[in-house]
Structure formats: C-alpha cells, structure tokens
Fold these 2 entries.
Entry 1:
Amino acid sequence: MELQIGIFGLGFVGLTTSLGFAEKGFRTRGFDIDLKRRETITNGYLPFLEPGLDTVLRHYLGREFLISQSATETAKESDIIFFCVGTPCGKNGRADLRYLFSALDNILPVIQDEKPRILVIKSTVPPGTTQNEIIPHIRTKWDFDETKLMIANNPEFLREGKCWEDFINPDRIVCGVENEKTTGILQELYNPFNAPLYFVSLNTGEFIKYLSNTLLASLISFSNEMSIIADRVGNVDTGKAFRILHEDKRLRGSGINAYIYPGCGFGGYCLPKDTQAMAENARSAGFEPGILREVIKTNDGMPEFFAKKIKATAQPDTPIGILGLSFKPESDDVRESQAAKIIKLLLADGYTNLYAYDPSSNASFDEMYRLPHVRYLSSAKAVCGAGTVLVVVTAWEEFKNLQLTFPSKTWIDCRYFIVKKGAA
Ligand SMILES: NC(=O)c1ccc[n+]([C@@H]2O[C@H](COP(=O)([O-])OP(=O)(O)OC[C@H]3O[C@@H](n4cnc5c(N)ncnc54)[C@H](O)[C@@H]3O)[C@@H](O)[C@H]2O)c1
C-alpha cells in the first residue's frame, strides 16, 4: 500500500520535506496553522526566499503535494506524520516546545482509529525530548501500543539557501526509533534517497542534530575569538590569514571552511537557539558545559566588538550605511540578525543618522525590528552614497567590490570579505 505522508508546519523544513517526498513519488499533504502562509503556498508562491524551491513547488502542487486546510484531515489521511513546527528559544534558553505539543494535541483525538501511524519529530528538539516528554505526554491521553502508534524522530540537516539540494541529496539520514517495525517503514520511505540511512535510539537521533549545530557554532566562535586577538595584536590581515589556513590539506576544498572564518557572529534561526538549548540541556543533566558557555559568550560579544569600531570612527550625527540585514547572504531570514544587534547598540549611544540596504530583506527587517532612525534605501550604491562610514554586515556577493567604487569612504567589513584596492 502506498504510504501517505502528512506534514505539520510549512516553513523552510516542512515545505522542503513535503516537496522532497513528493519528488520521490509519495502523496504528501501539508498543513500550516498560518492561513496566510497556506494561501501563499496554494497560489504557488514561497512564503520565504529559497532559491529554486518555487519551481519545485509549482511542479508538485495539486499533484503529489496537496495543501490541506485542516489539521485533522491531514492527520486522518496520513500513515506517517512529520512535525516540522518551530522550536524557538524559550525561557532561560531552553527549547520552547509549545508549538510541537499544540500540534500533537490537535491531532491526538482523530488518530485513535484503526489505522496504524508513525509520528515523526523532525523539528529540532533537545536530547531526551521524544523519550521523556513526548511519549509520556501522549500516554496521558492515549494508552497506545505499537500496532497503532509508533513514535520516531528524524532530525533535519538542511541549510537555508540550499534547502532543496540538501534535502534531495542528503549526506546522511538519521532516524531515532524504538522498534523494528518503525525501522522497516522508515526504511521504505527513505530508500529512494540513495543516502546512508542510520537507525539509532531516540536520544541519539536528537543528540546528533545538536552535535552538528554546536560544532558549527563552536568553529565560528573560535574564528571570531581569533579575529579579536588578531585585532589586538594589530597589523594582521585576518581574512587573508584564515584563507591561507584553509589551504591546509586537511581543510582544502571542504565546506566546513565556511564556518572556520570570522565575522560578526552567528545569527539566524538555528545556531543561536540550538547552542543555548544544548547548554541548558547539559545543565539540566547536572553538567556545566564550559565550552558551549564560552561559544555563546563570544558570539554575544561580537555586535559590541563591531559597534565599538564604528563608534571609534563615527560621531553620533555621522551618516552610517549598513550593508546587509539578513543573517546570511541568499536569504531573507532576519531572525537573530546581527545587523539588528549592531544597529541597536548604535541607537543606544545616540547614533541616529542610519541608512540600510539588503537585497532581500529591507521590508521584513523593518517589520520585525521597527527600529527608529533607520532609512531603508533601494540599492547598495545609494547607501554607499549616503553614508560616510560604511559597515558590511552580511556577505552578499554584490557588496564585494563596492569599496573599489567608493574608496574615499571609511569601511568596516564585519565579514572580512570585501575587495580592497591594491590588495593581493
Ligand atoms: N531553518 C533551518 O535551516 C532548519 C534546519 C534544520 C532544522 N530546523 C528545525 O526545524 C524546525 C522548523 O524550522 P523552520 O525553519 O522550518 O521553521 P519556520 O518558522 O520556518 O516554520 C515553522 C512553521 O510551523 C508552523 N506551525 C506552528 N505551529 C503549527 C501547528 N500547530 N500546526 C501546523 N503548523 C504550525 C508555523 O506557522 C511555521 O510556518 C525547527 O525545530 C528548526 O530548529 C531548521
């Protein structure tokens, strides 16, 4: 019998997962609680910037991929239900699981029928969550057995900006499972992906995701700490030093080099909250995670490091241009944007002559942060013309050569990537 897939949450992960299974020939139903988001997708548009995913959406929409208007219909019709809802940073840095529990509670009454189902947690949740919180929570409402309900987790490793490529050609697929029956069904589902498929315990599945994200965060904070040391030493070409480091044959050509490079700190949806949540998870288990604590502290200090540099060269009434607002290039995601943190530090010290431009995010940044005294301009060149001090916060390719066109301005390159006149 053909497996029917249901997906709860149609963000970066949920929409990509829906379309990925559709591409592999499964009938997939997606539901998002946000009506506006459902309408946007139903009309064939993405609710976020994700290169290439719109073409895939238009191809599968109304065929293998259906948008559902009802959570209960999605749950009833599906054999495997994926939860891809947000798990933001909650109280004291812990993962906030309220969206996950609310999605679960919504469907529990309708799935207690004759059809066996698997619930798969794809949202990033701290190690121990499925075993110690989700399963006991479901059991308070339904004393199920494994012939009726199986619970698994399946962490997602895709990167925003490369969602489709990463989902369709994963380097590994990890499923946290409790029994052989679940393994068999998930094996059938993931067989068409032609990638190493690992079945591990529930806690191991969750742990692997945090292992990955906290390593990336640690590499970034290590690089940032080294950049601060280089700055103190003086006369160090920091960007060049890291690029030469990447020539080490143990690193050369590796994608990991993107994380072994300094900047103004990691932002976005995942690394900040997941590093915090892992640290809190460790504390709950009775262990103080010294390295993770310092990774977070270094990251938290990076906006201040650059704000000080700006203030050292600009007066409160100096026109300052901010280039880049999204947390990384090729993305319109402004969650935990370092630009917002730097601008807030400037505003706090009375800097009110601010201009900003981002190729994708002027409007979404303004809507999310509502910062006063920031004028959003329609091009990078307009910002370069308006500002005396220019601060590159996001490494968009279109900013790379701007200093060559505006050499008389004072440049602060928070990403160590712009081309300088005469630089080798
Ligand atoms: N964004 C990434 O790069 C990435 C990568 C790997 C893992 N993750 C993890 O995957 C999860 C989802 O991340 P995302 O970036 O896709 O989040 P997102 O914020 O883009 O999307 C989450 C969606 O869930 C919807 N939602 C909330 N409650 C719901 C409910 N009860 N029923 C149906 N829909 C509901 C929201 O409306 C939203 O559209 C998070 O746990 C995240 O940590 C994210």
Entry 2:
Amino acid sequence: MPQSIRVAIEESSQTAEARRVARKMAEDLGFDDTRAEKVAIAVTEVCTNILKHAERGEILVTAGDGSDLELLALDRGPGMANIEQCRRDGYSTAGSPGQGLGAILRLSDSSDFYSIPGKGTAILARWSAPAAEKSGPLRIGAVNVSKYGQETCGDAWGVEQSREVSTILLADGLGHGYEAGVASLEAVRTLHRHPDLGPLALIEYCHGALRSSRGAAVGIARVDRAHGKITFSGVGNVGAQIYSGASSGPHLVSVNGTAGHHTARPREFSYPWPNDGLLLMHSDGLTTSTGLESQPSLALHDPSLIAGVLYRDFNRGQDDATVVVAKAT
Ligand SMILES: [Mn+2]
C-alpha cells in the first residue's frame, strides 16, 4: 500500500530532510541515480518555493508496492495569480526567479498544479515506477499520513481493479500508531484475499479477520462502470461521497460500530455511478465537511492532487489522515 511521508517545511534546513526522504524512496523503488537525482532536485525546487512565497508548508512523498513515486508540495501562501505564466521558466515578480514550475515540468514524468490566489498552492510531480500497476477503469490518488510524531499510520487503504470493476477499501484502526495499523492493514489484506467479493460480504469478512485486533472503522466501495453503479458498505466513521464532476452527490452511509468488535448489522447501499463520477473517501483525521464544494475546479485535476489539497484544507492535525480520490480514466 502506498504510504506518504510528510516533512514540514518551515526553514531551509528541512529541505535537506525532504530531499533525503524522497531520494531514499526513489532508490527503494529501483530508480537509477539520474532519476533519483531528478526527484531530489524537484524537492529542492518546491521547498524553495514554499519558503520564499508562502513561508511555510509541507511536502508529502508517496510511494509503495505497485505505485509510482509522487511528490506533493502544499502551502497556504498567497497562491499564483497566473499559473500559466508561472509555468514558464524565467517568469519573475519583483525580480525573483519565479516559482520554478517549468523545472518541475521538466524533471518529472507528469505533474499538475492547483493554485488559488489567497488560498495557497499545491504542486504534484510524479515519476513512474517500473513495477507500477497502471491498468484499471479508475484513476486513484491518495495520501495516507500518520499523526504528528507517530511513525506508523493507523489508517490504511487498498484497491483491487479488474477491467470493469474497482473496489476501494479505507480502514481506520482504533486509536493510532502500530496496533491501529495492524488492524487497518488486516482489513486491506482481506480485500486482496477476496478481490471479487462485494462490499457487504467483504465487511463481514473484515469483521471476522479483525477479531483479534484492536478493530477498525472500514468503508468499502465497489464501482461498476459498465453498469453505472456504485455499491458501498461501511462500519464506523469513514467519510465517503460521490460527485458527478464537481457537483456533489450522495454521502455513502456506514453503520455504527467497529469492525472486529461490535457493529450494528452491516448494510449495503447502491447508487448510480455517473460517467464523470468521482469518489471521495477519507478517515476521521479530516473533518466531516471535507469536500470539493468550496473549490469546484479542483475536481478537474489529478486525483492525487485533489487528495493532497483536501488533506491540506481539512486535516484536523490530531490523528492519522487518509484521503482517497477515484475518478474515471
Ligand atoms: Mn482516525
């Protein structure tokens, strides 16, 4: 499962830490020296921008088995008034060398930017990993960050995709830290053991599999694009909502309880899945108002960038935090 490492960027010495983290992840994914160095230079570039234009922000570096390497740079600074102009190297305001978006474009395999004047800037840069799994009817982006000061994240998420069907699971282990992570990872393993099961059956399997663990809140969504249908089953506090493009659709309902311990009788709900459907799932490390309503144009962006911006804007700062965004390819 891809996990995100967060580095707060508030002073220039933290740039070196961010570079080290990103380079290590690149090497772990099997990147050669040239590509690992591109990642490191891009990290320096985004950190410099944060310190210069926003004073503070954070870097998330995300990678894992079967995933690409992703760098998210998030700040709540003044934002860019004209992002197209800032893309070009050499653009400068008041003699500064510009925000270096051109450099990010050149150094990464793909990138995306989202900036609203007065609300901040979010930059995504991605490098493909040789072993990354590309196929599937939905593109999925996520951030999965542990509580400040905790090494292990108590949240976990996973996905199984066939040609037509995508099943996405998000689990939030009770409390936080290592034991919470054991519980949530067991829920993810349950999905991988039974990739063809529907959400209700999977929730029931999770309930059994988590019995000896601390337990977890678990939400499972299954999107069937061919039939235009999404099915959801959840136990405990996992936020889930469907959008049609940027227009908000139904919240997906979970029953009370904790998988592995006591739960109300699990239920399964079905809704239409629009052609331009977008699924947002998040743990309670983000507020209940998490959504795209306040910034509709965000829905047009790369799912990883959407997840990053939602994390930046709705993260409570007191818990593990996970956001998963899935949209049509
Ligand atoms: Mn939580």
